[in-house]
């Protein structure tokens, strides 16, 4: 006859559960910090800006080549060496909001590239651009090169292309 009986224990103790939960929380926090979603979204929007600017510059140069070296009329009319926000003609305030460059009060309208079939649509900044003010800029130099850039990149210090 047994005087003492040993009970078999089923399940986990509270301490064991708390330790597992703490380990999972630490791992989740480390992964969240490593992935840093805010930075990833900023980099994705900057990638979109770079793509938009590449498409716009390619359209400008293709139009120039197809027209015997002459730029679109709106680009030819620009003063050399000055920066202009890409937007709609007639919009006031084109000289506000661009932190990358000091832009002129008048916008440069690239919708002619759309109507001529060189560009699907005038690109707009993924965060702050509108059809009237795209938050991108353009500058034509005296040597005939064109620079396009993003007014407000996020992850990068600046985004601009020259051709």
Automatic annotation (TrEMBL):
Keyword Membrane: yes
Membrane protein topology class: Single-pass membrane protein
Biological source species: Candidatus Uhrbacteria bacterium CG_4_9_14_0_2_um_filter_41_50
GO biological process, one term: protein secretion by the type II secretion system
InterPro entries on file: N_methyl_site (IPR012902), Pilin-like (IPR045584), T2SS_protein-GspH (IPR002416)
Protein's name according to its UniProt entry: Uncharacterized protein
UniProt keyword Ligase, yes or no: no
Source species, domain of life: Bacteria
Compartments in which it is found: Membrane
Transmembrane stretches, start-end: 12-35
